[in-house]
């Protein structure tokens, strides 16, 4: 057999080290290689020659970009790992416990790496102090230890232990042999003797060679992919190797595996099928003791002879996690939910009730439909639901269904294949449902979907399947859907705009968010939060605060935040009503168009705006106040609550207080301080009389 000599280029930090490593390679590989050495310290690396393999010291370059400047892209490279000889370690082991010594090397980085390596090899009884060129020389040391860098040892040191140059580690030698296809050399006594002469804290190569001399070409797999479980069999399908990860995944005892037939020890892995076909088996699933396991088997073929095979196994959940990380990298976006239920501000009963319902729904996997006016915090609730669910470690993806054209929305949600339409990205694109696998997708303004897309969404919910635009392959996804709408989907279903079957699928777990005008003191609570956010130092006058409490807040929390930001920039200590922007006043100053469809007084129209769907509760409170007025009495919250209870109406103390505050803000009643109760005035009587006749 004719063997072509291979060219090896050795690169290290300084000339001494590079030449030392080069000589080691020559001693081991002899006439099979042609070598050259370069070093970074004096710049000879700039004139580097072409080679079949580049062997590079880990401390030669500061960064990967520096390395890429000198080594041609795509060329094979082996990083030099170094260790000490057994003799050097034996000398250090003879030193007494607690010995203090300098450790001298070329740089601080090299010193610390060398000390760490000694610790890994069991030298933990010596207290080393780093010493290197350029540092402040430590004094008072009688002993120095150095890997052949005696010239940098301080002059006042009495004794020097020279460990000699660190030698190539066994992993480096094996990798060089494998890269150059000289793996047959590893069976020779020269290499065995070398491996015995060096200190090692990892696998014993002597033992590995003894198990199967014909499987040296696969040892690098055992060394480099230990994140996965590995089981190796010989040509007769007897197990000769099994790492701890594999034993942990499969729940098996390693001592009961080695030298056992694979068909008996691990019957769930089809080594025999691989032996007969001599083909790689990729990505199969099997369930072991209730856990889904993903495995692949790679045969080892030398010439035309089957030498055995290796199986890599991992828990399917771990593989899915890797896939998710890759998807996120491809998407180049975080897609993480930021908010939790503690971030939802409010003490009113209506918001506490909504949070309580949503927290219970978070524990399930069913679809959630969040309804409420624009600006009430639907996405905030969606993120909180996701972060309180079992899916919180997976993506949260939000998309507004009404914000983009129908065809663009379809390609974003479901992805597309290469050439699906003009302008499609080469290679196609994954859809958001695929990116959201195992996580949550939030479909805001879901009513904006076309009927065609509604059908595709229905299939995702029912079958857990998507198909890319222009594709013909079904892709299984596990995604929880949280939908949101500003409109009444009941009305859209009745008018035929929204599919009834989709509505009932989405509305499995409904959450209704209250508008800001129904949240009482939450208005001022949110006001203070936003004022702090914008660094405002102003206060509201009594009239301005009443205006805030009685404002219709058609834009809800988003509108409130915008007004607070505006006021923060006015640079005033006290905000009066006239300081509020025109848009604020225009919301309550144009009663021309009646919300009820009937003409009425300005106060009646304003009460209608504020009361919303709770008009009956407002009228009941006014009725209680009116009855008390007839009796020449004032009335408190407790009395109103008792009257409500006797009439079969549920009104809490908090809700009654909110209503009384709103009525006081409209100047329809007067709230007395302390236990004085509340009293309706002439304007309130007039409004009550007017509205009682209409409602």
TrEMBL record:
Record Gene3D superfamilies: 1.10.8.60, P-loop containing nucleotide triphosphate hydrolases, PAS domain, Winged helix-like DNA-binding domain superfamily/Winged helix DNA-binding domain
Keywords: ATP-binding, Nucleotide-binding
SUPFAM superfamilies per the UniProt record, alphabetical: P-loop containing nucleoside triphosphate hydrolases (SSF52540), PYP-like sensor domain (PAS domain) (SSF55785)
Coiled coil location: none
Record PROSITE patterns: PAS, SIGMA54_INTERACT_1, SIGMA54_INTERACT_2, SIGMA54_INTERACT_4
Protein name, UniProt field: Transcriptional regulator with PAS, ATPase and Fis domain
Source organism, top-level taxon: Bacteria
Domain PAS: 215-260
Entry-linked Pfam families: AAA_lid_14 (PF25601), PAS (PF00989), Sigma54_activat (PF00158)
Keyword presence, Amino-acid biosynthesis: no
